[in-house]
Design goal:
4 copies of one chain form a homotetramer. Chain A is an alpha/beta fold. Helices cover 35% and strands 22% of the residues of chain A. Chain A starts with a strand and ends in a 9-residue tail after the last helix.
């Protein structure tokens, strides 16, 4: 039984994390905090009435250190890099759900997040928490950088292909669609019900901060430089990401061969479901689960592969993956609390 | 051809008003303003691109006076009562969509709107703009107080009954359901897509500021004091109000008799549709129209009448009714620009 | 460990039941069937991929008898009364989610369900499965009739009042709003996305088949004849019921006194949350849970009580309550698999 | 004033067509019909109460011939090709909204629509009704084939580029997203509210029947063979199509140059709005209008252009464009009834 704390429990990811940890049999949640909202957690999230009596406090690092073995940061970027070093110094393991430790190069971070990185030492040490690719490193991590929601769907959708056929890829286009919770929980006219409902649009076209994260890890997987073109869109739903990924190939590959490759690559993975062809992922099949569903299709000339990858952005794209990482870091069963 | 201006064009009611007036053949929109947002109106409302080149200015009363014959106030309460007197002094006709001139008693206003009324002189003079009941007075009005959205549906649903069977009414309960646009266009966490979507709740139970307005005009119609119990709810849709009204009767009345009464009462009204029984109103049938649809049902013992009344809160409940009133005040055809 | 079966696993209630039972630690699902859809359950419900390999069969009563200790009927009315007697004969306990065994009078059944009851013997024996009221009887039941969704919210919202202040009630109006899943899973133009979305309407006004069920059990609770006026409405959401209940009182009662009564009445109930005043239930707080949230408000003259009662129609209104009943009937912890 | 008729008025496109024609000042709707639904049109579409008393009849070609100058076919494919020849013989102009006359090659038709074309004579004569490209031919058309919804957005989004830079295009990927009304109005479990709501998925991946239509007309525009990769998705909204189009270029072109080209190409077009950069189309800006909004963005290396094209599938993608075509064919002002 370990003691865990969460900063950012008033946000959507923080909430899901809290809910998952409350039901986790090897964990006790000993401390929850938020920077802008304090009070009984059941006043902030009334649906939790009867399930917990915890109080959401203004964050106090001393309390976090005293009360927790593992600490989750479900905060906006730039906040995490101020807190993580203090926790690490006291041997508290840190799982950061923000973007602060995902990129390994401070100048790339600055370019995309418009802020100077102030914890370069730990930036290098942080382990990227995509268990299907980095399970062994994660087991030993003390600072875990939880992947972004868009990168999780993209990397899981592309990993087998880039790992095994990297040389045959000539271009990758990712057309991504996300529910509103990806934008966070805040008073913002752009997120007003009447602005989002019955609407749909692209945003940050070719210019989203998750691009360097996707490119960095795809390049690692394939051991060659890989670039992607990425266009996100806003869906009028609460949660879920579906990415339609177009991969142009230099040579023909048969769809069956690729399908076999995917099946084998993820053979022992409990959270990846490679669908039989011609089935396609749907958001309702992955929402409120830690699954990533993957569909495959091919143009007749066998030179354009279409991969569809679907996750719940709040679960496999954030809180669920964080718990999966915590399980690995703590020696628990990897699926504990997630199936 | 008259010249009209609007203050509050960046809100939902102000927008619909602007759209209706742009297409109105007897009107030219000469001035639009908002207090918190200025700029090209097509930057504020990009869907208007190609239909107008107007600029939305910070409000300047001198411009309003110079440029307009009729001026619409689509503003929060307390703002209207500061501006209306200035316009009236210069013989500009005013149509106020806010709650400032609907109640006739300043202390009742203070109780429900939590503000001191500062224009008591005009409060008495203002004409309540429900054309189906007050058409002749409206034609002569210089200060027109446009009814609230909930009161419009309630009064139209109850007017025939209270006018003709007032003595037989023992109680009235109004269970009202409104789309989100009724709460206005503003950055507010309670109106965030993810808070409203797939949700439903009551609010201001028995305690909404539209109660005294409904009671005041029902009492006038029936020439006796009438009270109502009113519970509003928030629907996860953009626009529309449906009210289910339960009237307990002291004596039996047959449903057919009541249906005949309603048909006769609204016989010449273009915007009221009394449905054949057992048909029921649906929001999709009135949305984006100036119609009020009314359905009737009766308990077997003929002592409980259920009236359902549906409108588009932004049209018959706000902007459409304002245009209908303008038509009457200006000697235009009453339905001009609305059918 | 008991063996359970479900008929009707291709419907929404059947699905939720199956999901709850799959995760229930004292239960093994040994048989699932549906009348119109057969095949791998993961083809019918692809989101279950990886969690079960069961096959959904065309119903065969011999298999049900051989394979199950407890059998759930998640079927339309008239189907259950044909199957239940066969199962009971073989000492299989039956939990019927349909309306077949809720009313105790065959002629009342015929009037509201437009069908002749063919199992009158068991109709009398069936135990009505509202655990908060009939826990002890449920423990001994062999044929359990699971309450309707609307009645569950109504009865839980009204039970304390009718039990303790029955003599002071002069009328009860229930204005109910339900999500679409209440209408079942079937190809029906009235349930087409484009017909329901951004819409709202009343239906079966004062004429819904759940009325006699509500009246029957309210009358039992209060030991006097109670009638209700009931108007259901269709919400553009998937799941959830909120009922706004207006109770006219013959004498004044203070809101605090009623609130205390409710708190005491449900003091030991794990699934009933009587909210502090002036808090109001919201569907998002009960959806995907077995909770019933209850809010209370009172008119100033203390003679009109407004009770708001919210449940998830698929959980506390169907599958969750069925599991709660199974727990009681089987000697398990009542909340097992539900918290 | 011309007399027009519609077959298929009970569908979504047929309805919008009927509404547009009812308000069109140069047109009288003299005959409406549907194959599966007949009766007062206000029983089929209650929101039209008060606006028309027409009766929707079972289709009778003699009546159509007697009563109409122009006839609209808003019917499923294969139905149109049976009716159009009869009407044409009698000199009734035909505007077909189905897919029957869009492709010019009967064997291509058979491959994609799985039916043998039975009116090859007229197939060749039919004019493709995309006014921005084929205005002069449309003016003289007697059989007008209204473009598909997806092809309208695709062709308008790609026309300037393919017309002027066709030689520089190396590949085109179209990632399309459509509201539910695109699938038609029918009882179908896949279109049930609860299946579509809060969901999103791709379908007919690389295999939609609109592909040959897009390729045929892009090839004509660019005077070279053009292929596209096309993946449609289903959005949980009623109406609207947004296509994100990725064009790989063989040579660099500056975004400004392309933007200028688009502005010039559509300079006099009333229904095409080329947005200023970096603005992006949103469905809510085009819904219920005949506009097509186009946004442009470019990868830094100037070799990947991203075009976003948005329309209302029921207006510019069907009924609105049909009216625009009728205006041209009848010598009316092209925008009549559409702005």
């Amino acid at each position: 039984m370990i003691k865990v704390g969460i900063l950012g429990v008033s946000g959507y990811s923080g909430l899901i994390l809290f809910e998952l940890l409350l039901k986790h049999k090897d964990v006790r949640v000993t401390y929850i905090a938020a920077n802008n909202t304090t009070g009984k957690i059941t006043d902030i999230w009334p649906h939790l009435l009867g399930q917990t009596n915890l109080f959401c406090e203004r964050f106090d690092i001393k309390k976090a250190i005293t009360l927790c073995d593992v600490f989750f940061l479900a905060v906006p970027h730039t906040t995490a890099m101020k807190i993580a070093p203090e926790l690490l110094k006291e041997n508290i393991k840190v799982i950061d759900i923000s973007g602060d430790y995902r990129l390994k190069n401070a100048s790339v971070y600055k370019k995309w997040y418009h802020a100077t990185h102030t914890d370069i030492k730990n930036l290098k040490k942080a382990v990227y928490g995509l268990p299907e690719l980095y399970r062994e490193k994660i087991k030993k991590a003390v600072l875990l950088s939880n992947p972004g929601c868009y990168p999780t769907a993209a990397l899981l959708g592309l990993a087998p292909l880039t790992a095994l056929y990297g040389k045959k890829i000539s271009s990758i286009i990712i057309d991504a669609k996300s529910g509103v919770s990806g934008a966070g929980r805040k008073a913002d006219l752009a997120l007003h019900f009447s602005e989002v409902n019955e609407n749909f649009k692209a945003y940050k076209v070719l210019n989203h901060q998750h691009v360097p994260e996707i490119e960095l890890y795809l390049s690692k997987i394939s051991q060659q430089k890989i670039s992607v073109d990425f266009v996100p869109h806003l869906l009028p739903i609460h949660r879920g990401i579906l990415e339609t990924i177009y991969v142009a190939l230099t040579d023909k590959i048969s769809l069956n061969q690729i399908h076999q490759t995917y099946k084998r690559f993820y053979k022992t993975e409990k959270f990846i479901r490679v669908l039989d062809m011609p089935k396609q992922p749907e958001l309702k099949n992955v929402c409120k689960t830690n699954y990533c569903d993957i569909g495959l299709a091919m143009r007749k000339d066998q030179k354009l592969l279409v991969i569809t990858s679907a996750i719940d952005n709040l679960v496999k794209g954030a809180a669920g993956q964080a718990v999966q990482n915590m399980n690995l870091m703590s020696g628990f069963k990897e699926t504990e609390g997630l199936l």
